[in-house]
Amino acid sequence: MTDSSLSLEIPLHIFRFKVEFQEASLDEAVGSAVNLVDGYFSEVSGLDATMEAKTIQVGGMNYGVVQRPGRVSFATVILRRGITTRRHLWQWFELMNVSGAYKHRLQVTITLQDHSGEPQLKWTLERAMPIRFKSPDLNAMTGDDVGIEEIHLAHEGLRYEVV
What we know:
Low-confidence stretches: none
Structural class: mainly beta
Strand content: over 45%
Number of helices: 1
Helix content: under 10%
Shape: globular
Mean pLDDT: 84
Number of strands: 10
Order of helices and strands: EEEEEEHEEEE
Radius of gyration: 21 Å
C-alpha cells in the first residue's frame, strides 16, 4: 500500500546554523537587530524545555494517579565560539552585571540551514540574558588549539518552528 502524498524526509545536518540577536522589549513586539556578535558560533547546546508533571490522587482510583501538565522550565543555553579580539559577549554580560537593567535582554534566534544555506528550523529564546561568561583556558602545552569562549544564557521562553 503506497501513498503518493507521503514522502521520505531527509534528516537535516546540524553543522550549518546562524545565531542572531535582537532587542527584546517588555511587550511581545521585537525591536531592531543588534550587531552584538561578529562571526559565527561553533556550538549551541541547551535548546531544552521540560514540563513538570503534576500528579493528582483521585479517591477510589487505586491503580495509578492522574497526570496533569505543570510548570515548564528551560535549560541554560550555551553558545561557544572561537575567541577573537572582539569583546561583544563580555560587554553584554558586563551590562547585565553592572546595571542589572531589564532593557539589555535580547531575543536570540538560532536558525538551522540546509546544505544550500536555506533556513529550515528556528529556535527563538525570549528575553535572554547572559548569566555566565567563560574565557578559554590558557595552556602553553597545547598552544596550537583554538581558544573557545562561552556565553551562558537564561531565558524566559523557547519557540521552535519550521521556517
